[in-house]
Each structure stands twice: as C-alpha cells, then as structure tokens.
C-alpha cells in the first residue's frame, strides 16, 4: 500500500513537473518536484530508503529526458542518502527547517549534475550554472517545500505514508 | 557483519559504474540511437502527449475563467504579430538577396525547394539544464539527425536524435546550440548561442568592431556550417556590449519564436 502511494506521488511529481510547472517558471526555472519528494522521504525514512527513492525518481526523470541516462538517478540517490543520514538528528516538524534542508540538498544535487555534465563534455561556465540554474532551482524547491511539507508530514505521521519503514 | 558491508559497498560501486557508463553511452550528437533508447522514446511519447494535452487543456480552461476569454484573443494577436514580424524579416531578406543576385545576374531561390513536415510537440525536457522538445515525427516520417526545425516566425532549432516515431529537437535557446548568423542590414557575421541565464534571450558572439550593430536590427541564419539554410529569421538585436578581450563584441538577441508556447513546428526535410 505504502509503495503504491509513493509510486503515485512520484508519478504526480513527474506529471506536475513536466506540465503545469513548465508554465510556472520563475527566473526561467521550474522546480525539481521529484527531488523535493526525495528530500521529504529521506528525512522521514532514513538513508537507504532515501537513496532508493532518489535512484528511482531520478531514473524516471532521465528516461523522460532521453539523454545522459543515469545523471539524475546518481545525483538524487546520493542526495537521498546524505539527507537520510539526518533522519534521527534533524528536527523534522518545521516546514522552515525543511525548506533550509531542501535548499542545501538542491544545491548539492544540482552541483553534482553540473559536475557530471562537465565530465561529459558539456561546457557551461560556472557563473551561468550557479546563477542560471543551481541557485534559482534551490530557491524554488525550498519555496515548494515550505508550501507542501505540512501536508507530507501529516501523511507520514498519521496518514497513508505512516510507518513506511515498518 | 564486515562481509555485508563489503557486499553493500561493492553493489554501490557497481551501480555507480553502470550509471556513469549509461551517461556516456546516451550522450547526444551520436549518429544513431540504440534500439533500446529508440524504443524507450516511442513508449514514453504517448504518455508525454497525454500529459501535454491535459496540461494545455487545464491551463486554457483556468485562463478563460480568470480572463473571460480575453487572454485567448490577446495570445492570438501576439502570435500574429510575431508571425508577421518573421514574414517581414523574411521579405526583407528576399529583397536584399534579389538585389545581390541581380547585381550578379544570377538567380537562385533555395528555399522554394524545401519540403516541410508538420510535427506536434509532445514533450519538453523535464530538467532545467537543457532546452529540448520531443515531437511526434521520427525516422518513419523521413526525419534525420540535424534536420532544421522552423516556424513561420523563425528558427526553432535542429533535430538532435531520431527514434522511429519521435524526434528530439535541440532549441536554439539551449546552451549547447550554436547557429551561424548575420545581422541582416550590415551582413555582419556572428554565432548565436543559447544561454542559461533564463531571460529567454540569445547571445550573438564574435561580432567584429568594424561595423555598428544597432538595437532592433534583424538577425538571420548565414548558411555557414551546412546545417541551417541561409536567411531564416532568428531574432532581433536588443543591446550590444564589448567583450572583455576588447577585440570583439556580443549582442543580446530576442528570438523571433515564442519558445514558451511551442505546440507545432515544421521540420525541413530537404533544403
């Protein structure tokens, strides 16, 4: 049941990211909703689950993109794992703290993507990468996190996503 | 316990290795996609088509509720202005071309030979690093890599990868794109590149300092490089600035095509 709900959430994130949020670009970027979901899930369920969802969610995004297959899977799995390490130590109830975690996680994930692209021969100047994509995406993702986290938190403590790890 | 850890580390390293290999295998600009990639694109395409359709319908309905139908009319008029501007630039290009060719007593009109294939946009790259679209025509329809994609208002991009039923198009706004161009009035050459600054504007680089470039001048393809035919409208100059080297200048160019609302495009099958 939990896996089914999670799969639905991934599908919903992909749906929104590739359609509605393409029309709601701010500073030229759309949020990475799958990454936001990975951060929420990792902080609630730990590094292993975070890494698995990051891998699956990133792979879905890579398949839709069609190029550089594995880039998002790798960066999101890594992000999910690292964020998940804070599962027991970070205060999880405040959406503002989640916004900060999401901001830092997004900076990390997009920086990994940037480094992977550089290693694949895609030349993008660091200034353009950071001010054109990495920072705007991190800001947008953290704004989405503030708006969406309460709903996710109540679902993970009292609703359908409760006790996922059990 | 230690053995379990080693197994995990080995599994993680293997997975990372496989992913990195997959990344290098699936870089764009290859002659052909693998069978698996081609099949994946064609399988994903109907889903993307459905998503795009649902999104467009939903947005259209939401907009009409809030604006009582005014927005649709405004959008249509804006699109007509863009198309007419593109036609004006094309006409000016034909006029200048005719003058040059008359002077040489040679007449040649390459663009009439073109065969255009109408393709519907079924998806966009979900990430923020690239500007690519997926269209519903592929190798079965005669599409080949590097074919040029246009609209009546101007240049859209070129075909990057072809599956049987779909193709991926690299838009000229993508940071990886480079188009040989000319300032229409002065015939000053330069290269128009996409950027990541997300203003939707393009950068025309390598302009020599010998001739002035003024705002509002039209920029068209130069035909150099062999991919893009000559004379396709690309955009209009917004501003010009000196490069740090002091040897060349760059111009900011606003594209003729509205890349935020691409729905159908033409693929030039031959030119």
Helix-strand layout with pairing:
The complex is a heterodimer of chains A (about 170) and B (about 270).
Chain A: H1 2-18, H2 33-45, H3 47-65, H4 71-84, H5 95-119, H6 126-157
Chain B: H1 2-25, H2 35-67, H3 70-103, E1 115-124, E2 132-135, E3 148-151, E4 154-162, E5 167-171, E6 178-183, E7 189-193, E8 202-208, E9 218-221, E10 233-242, E11 248-255, E12 264-270
Question: What this model shows, in words?
Answer:
The complex is a heterodimer of chains A (166) and B (271). Chain A is mainly α and 166 residues long. Chain A has a single domain (2-157), classed as Arp2/3 complex 21 kDa subunit ARPC3 (Orthogonal Bundle). In chain A, 72% of the residues lie in helices and 0% in strands. Chain A is built from 6 helices and no strands. Chain A has helices spanning 2-18, 33-45, 47-65, 71-84, 95-119, 126-157. The longest helix of chain A is centred in the last third of the chain and has 32 residues, at 126-157. The model of chain A has no long low-confidence stretch (mean pLDDT 87). Residues 104-113 of chain B have low confidence and may be disordered. The relative contact order of chain B is 0.15. Chain B is of the alpha+beta class and 271 residues long. Chain B has 2 domains: 70-171 and 259-270, Rod shape-determining protein MreC, domain 1 (Thrombin, subunit H); 178-255, Rod shape-determining protein MreC, domain 2 (Thrombin, subunit H). Chain B has 3 helices and 12 strands. Chain B has helices spanning 2-25, 35-67, 70-103; strands at residues 115-124, 132-135, 148-151, 154-162, 167-171, 178-183, 189-193, 202-208, 218-221, 233-242, 248-255, 264-270. In chain B, the strands form 2 sheets. Chain B has a 6-stranded antiparallel β-barrel with strand order 1-2-5-4-3-12. Chain B has a 6-stranded antiparallel beta barrel with strand order 6-7-8-11-10-9. Chain B is globular. The A-B interface holds A 14-15, 17-20, 22-23, 25, 27-30, 32, 55, 61, 63-74, 110, 113-114, 116-117, 120-122, 124, 128-129, 131-133, 136-137 and B 15-16, 18-20, 22-28, 37, 40-41, 44, 48, 51-52, 54-55, 58-59, 123-130, 132, 134, 161, 168, 175-176, 195-200, 260.
């Amino acid at each position: 049941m939990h896996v089914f709900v999670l799969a639905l959430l991934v599908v919903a994130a992909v749906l929104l990211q590739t359609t509605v949020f393409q029309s709601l670009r701010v500073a030229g970027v759309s949020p990475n909703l799958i990454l936001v979901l990975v951060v929420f899930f990792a902080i609630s369920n730990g590094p292993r689950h975070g890494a698995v969802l990051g891998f699956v969610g990133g792979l879905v995004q890579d398949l839709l993109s069609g190029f550089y297959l594995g880039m998002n899977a790798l960066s999101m799995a890594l992000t999910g794992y690292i964020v998940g390490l804070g599962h027991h130590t970070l205060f999880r109830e405040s959406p503002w703290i989640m916004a900060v975690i999401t901001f830092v996680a997004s900076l990390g994930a997009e920086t990994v993507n940037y480094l992977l692209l550089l290693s694949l021969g895609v030349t993008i100047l660091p200034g353009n990468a950071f001010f054109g994509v990495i920072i705007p995406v991190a800001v947008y993702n953290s704004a989405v996190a503030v708006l969406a986290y309460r709903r996710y938190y109540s679902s993970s403590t009292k609703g359908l996503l409760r006790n996922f790890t059990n | 316990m230690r053995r379990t850890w080693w197994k995990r580390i080995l599994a993680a390293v293997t997975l990372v290795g496989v992913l990195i290999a997959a990344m290098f295998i699936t870089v764009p600009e290859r002659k052909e996609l693998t069978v698996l990639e081609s099949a994946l694109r064609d399988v994903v395409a109907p889903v993307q088509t459905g998503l795009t359709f649902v999104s467009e319908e939903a947005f259209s309905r939401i907009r009409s509720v809030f604006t009582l139908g005014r927005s649709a009319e405004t959008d249509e008029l804006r699109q007509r202005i863009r198309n007419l501007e593109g036609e004006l630039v094309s006409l000016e290009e034909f006029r200048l071309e005719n003058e040059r060719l008359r002077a040489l007593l040679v007449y040649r009109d390459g663009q009439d030979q073109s065969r255009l294939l109408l393709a519907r946009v079924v998806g966009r790259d979900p990430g923020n690093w690239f500007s690519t679209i997926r269209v519903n025509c592929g190798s079965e329809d005669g599409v080949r890599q590097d074919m040029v994609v246009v609209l009546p208002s101007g240049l859209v991009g070129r075909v990057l990868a072809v599956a049987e039923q779909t193709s991926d198009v690299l838009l000229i706004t993508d940071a990886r794109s480079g188009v040989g161009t000319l300032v229409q009035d002065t015939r000053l050459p330069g290269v128009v590149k996409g950027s990541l600054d997300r203003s939707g504007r393009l950068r025309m680089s390598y302009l020599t300092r010998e001739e002035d470039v003024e705002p509002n001048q039209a920029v068209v393809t130069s035909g150099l490089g062999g991919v893009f035919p000559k004379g396709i409208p690309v955009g209009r100059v917004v501003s010009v600035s000196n490069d740090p080297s002091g040897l060349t200048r760059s111009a900011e160019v606003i594209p003729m095509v509205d890349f935020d609302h691409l729905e159908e495009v033409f693929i030039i099958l031959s030119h």
